[in-house]
Amino acid sequence: MALNLTEPLGFVLIGLMLGMRHATDSDHVVAVTTFVSQERKVTGAVRIGLLWGVGHSATVLIVGALIIFCRVAIPVRLGLAMEFAVALVLVGLGARAARNLALSMLQRIGLRSASAEQPPPVVHSHLHSHGSLTHSHSHAHSDDALHTAPHAHYDHRVTAGALSGRRRQLKSLGVGLTHGLAGSAAIALLVLSTIQSAGWAMAYLAVFCVGTMLGMGFITMMIAMPVVWAASRVERWQHVIATGTALFSFGFGLVLAWHIGFVDHLFGSSPVWLPE
């Protein structure tokens, strides 16, 4: 496939379309779905998708620049190791759900006694005024009596869900960085095979990354809409969906790790890596 650099509109459209197509890769969708299934608002889900795209784009642009400008060659075993890291991330995303399921099964067959669950942590955010200076900070109190301090302040409780939402966003960014690291070599090599100019190649990578962010934002919106709809009617449904997606991520990651490690021989003497 040869790109006609004299047609900027076609150049941009091709980059955007392939970037959006890249966002639909199975490992990308599986990873992001584990976060989106826990969201209660579509806007929060889209934010997760965009942050994944930001992380993915950062590593694609950095590694791509090294390959395009410095002609850095990625060793076969290193390329496989980067893809293996993605598999481990997928396993990690579902590990907690798999652990809870295993403990629940052990409890049902009498091999583990039920234990009281600890209540979720509550964080307090205080707004203080010192003369003309006003500032706020979040912290936890060990005694509710501390809330009756004589100095004037406003107190509100930040739910655990709000805090976990921020953690999901940060995790999505980190997962995007890992995915971008694994896919950057293949993307850059494909660009080099079709665009000889280093400047145009980097411009194409930038457009490609924009397409990937837009694609993942659209995907997360489509996934979140039925999840949010279900949760608004029966709250337990969201828990079931979130657990199911996490378990699927765990299983998918294990299969991917096994394939990379033993079928592609990452741990063997003759590793096979075909960037795609």
Which tags fit this structure?
mainly alpha, three-stranded antiparallel beta sheet
What would your notes on this structure say?
The chain has 276 residues and is mainly alpha-helical. It has one domain. The longest helix has 36 residues, at 198-233. It has helices spanning 8-23, 26-36, 42-70, 76-108, 160-194, 198-233, 235-263; strands at 123-130, 133-139, 153-158. It is 68% helix and 8% strand. The chain has a 3-stranded antiparallel β-sheet. The protein has 7 helices and 3 strands. It starts with 7 loop residues before the first helix and ends in a 13-residue tail after the last helix. The radius of gyration is 23 Å and the shape is flat.
Tally of DSSP β-strands: 3
Proportion of helical residues = 55-70%
**Overall tally of domains:** 1
Please tally the helical runs, counting DSSP H or I stretches of 4 or more residues.
Answer: 7
Gyration radius, in Å: 23 Å
Q: Major sheet, described briefly? A: 3 strands, antiparallel
Helix and strand composition category: mainly alpha
Provide mean pLDDT, rounded: 82
Strand order in space, largest sheet: 2-1-3
Morphology call: flat
Distance between the termini: 15 Å
In terms of DSSP E residues, the strand content is 5-15%
Low-confidence stretches: 142-160
